[in-house]
Amino acid sequence: MQAPFTSHHTVSKRVLGLFAIGIALTATVAVLGVILGMLADFAVKGGPELTWSFLTEYPRNSNMEGGIFPALAGTTFLVLLMTLMGVPIGTATAIYLTEFARQDSWFARSVRFAVNTLAGVPSIVFGLFGVGFFVQFVGKGLDTASGSSVFGDGSLLWCAATLAVLTLPVVIVAVEEALRAVPRELREASLALGATRWQTITKVVLPNAVSGILTGSILAVGRGAGEVAAILFVGVTYSAESLPDAVTEKFMHLGYHLYVLATQSPDVEATLPLQYATTIVLLGLTFLLNFSAIYLRSRLRRR
Amino acid sequence: MAKEYPTKITATDFSMYYGQKQALHNISITVPERRVTAFIGPSGCGKSTFLRSMNRMNDLIDGTRHEGGMVIDDVDVYDPTVDVSTLRRKIGMVFQKSVPFPKSIFENITYGLTLLDRRSKSDLEQVVEESLQRAALWNEVKDRLHHSALGLSGGQQQRLCIARAVAVNPEILLMDEPCSALDPISTGKVEELITELKDTYTIVLVTHNMQQAARVSDYTGFFLMGHLIEFDRTRTLFTSPAKKETEDYITGRFG
Ligand SMILES: Nc1ncnc2c1ncn2[C@@H]1O[C@H](COP(=O)(O)OP(=O)(O)O)[C@@H](O)[C@H]1O
Ligand SMILES: [Mg+2]
């Protein structure tokens, strides 16, 4: 009596299972297809433009010809400066949160809440914050105090500061995770030998968390490197005769350059190959960062 | 109670709380100098908490609070003027899970020393050899001092942790179930070591293994639900316990 009923049930379940797997597989293939199709499209349309001189020359004729050198260099400066500003602050915050703060304290909870909220804020809002806070408030304030006009305008410095704030949550979360992965027993062993908390952090905790900290930093940098909206009003420029001499100058940026080519050019159609080639460079930069993060993480796992 | 020997550690009406929860209730005890004192009792009865109260490792846990006195060598451990690092250097600790630092054997042993000041290389080498000799590990590792300590076996790692604790020249060794993760042969070696080390150090040993307490300790305290039920010479406690609870425990009637 029961056998046919059971087998019938199993068959329908099996069909349902196959169906689910089929959908999942189709979705995966579709996503992969879109990505590969996009990359192939970029490669075909932009590939021919992607020459050594494209990377090393200045743009000419209102960005209609020539290369992207100042944008590539500007993006690199920006990323470096942003890292120098954001990673130490983020790491210090993470160290405070994991090693010093009482986990249930009002202050630690507020900081965590702020970090999580920050992570969900749209980039353009950071852009407004960059103008309002860094340029207008801090920059103009510094200028008024010193009686000069150095800081009160958009610049590489304020863009880096804005991106440092934008990537802060990524750094903090990643470093916290890396610190928490260090076994409590190691900390206790160090403290029991008479080490202070600070000695324990510098001699035991940080050396054991360094790969995680690096991975997190690279991911954050990757997030920052592709960001345009956040720096739109904070100091990027669409053309430059030379590289910035100081961090207080304006600079060119790959993402912004792409935006300019696509919207502000005298003949947008004609710049399409340049747009594609620029896209490839920008994507290449982000991929490189993400892959090095993945590589580091896998090495960390293996240990 | 331990009148025959000078006293090293004295707890007086000592209580410890984790937040609202009281883990130790009015413990009073005198731990004799250069003897092995064992704490036994069922899991969760407060043995580790009491041990960690002696070198203030419980300070590291949010929300702990104590009452009563804990005196080592006439110094109140919880006095605000006490420097915790100095206190902990005087009191070595060996944990249940052997935790060598992911560094070389040499660096593990010298870790505690280099915290204080710079030492000459020959000085450090001498301490490393002495400490490893003490921990009966020298012959096994002398040819690979600069290899990672993580390459040692479990038993060797635990003896390394003992050597690491001994290297800073403490007066007391606190051991929290040091053999519970070891095989019988390694356990035997560590027990032998404990017997040798007691000439130099005051040893407090937490163990869940009554046979171990009987084998290596001179005095034994029996804990139950945060109370010190009975404390006496090990022989006395195991052969003619004064309390019904102790008798029930050592005869295996519960726990
Ligand atoms: N970090 C902690 N936070 C809260 N309660 C704890 C903590 N550590 C231990 N306790 C509690 O204190 C009591 C004694 O624990 P412990 O000293 O570890 O016992 P034992 O070492 O005898 O097994 C137990 O009830 C345990 O749950
Ligand atoms: Mg315990």
In short:
With 303 residues, chain A is mainly α. Chain A has helices spanning 2-46, 52-56, 69-100, 106-119, 123-146, 156-180, 184-192, 197-225, 254-263, 272-302; strands at residues 59-60, 65-66.
Structural account:
- The complex is a heterodimer of chains A (303) and B (255).
- In chain A, strand 1 and strand 2 form a beta hairpin.
- The N and C termini of chain A lie far apart (57 Å).
- Chain A contains ten helices and two strands, in the order ααββαααααααα.
- Chain A is globular and about 70 Å long.
- Chain A is 74% helix and 1% strand.
- The mean pLDDT of chain A is 85.
- Chain A folds into two domains: 2-47; 52-302, MetI-like fold (Orthogonal Bundle).
- With 255 residues, chain B is α/β, with parallel strands linked by helices.
- Chain B has a domain at 7-99 and 171-250: Rossmann fold (3-Layer(aba) Sandwich), CATH 3.40.50.
- Chain B is 36% helix and 26% strand.
- A six-stranded mixed beta sheet of chain B has the order 6-7-8-3-9-10, with helices on both faces. A four-stranded antiparallel beta sheet of chain B has the order 2-1-4-5, covered by helices on one side.
- The longest helix of chain B is centred in the middle third of the chain and has 14 residues, at 121-134.
- Chain B is globular, with a radius of gyration of 18 Å.
- The model of chain B has no long low-confidence stretch (mean pLDDT 92).
- At the A-B interface, helix 7 and helix 8 of A face helix 2, strand 6 and helix 6 of B.
- The complex binds adenosine-5'-diphosphate and magnesium ion.
- Residues 18, 21, 23, 41, 43-49, 61 of chain B line the site of adenosine-5'-diphosphate (ADP).
- Magnesium ion (MG) binds at residues 47-48, 176 of chain B.
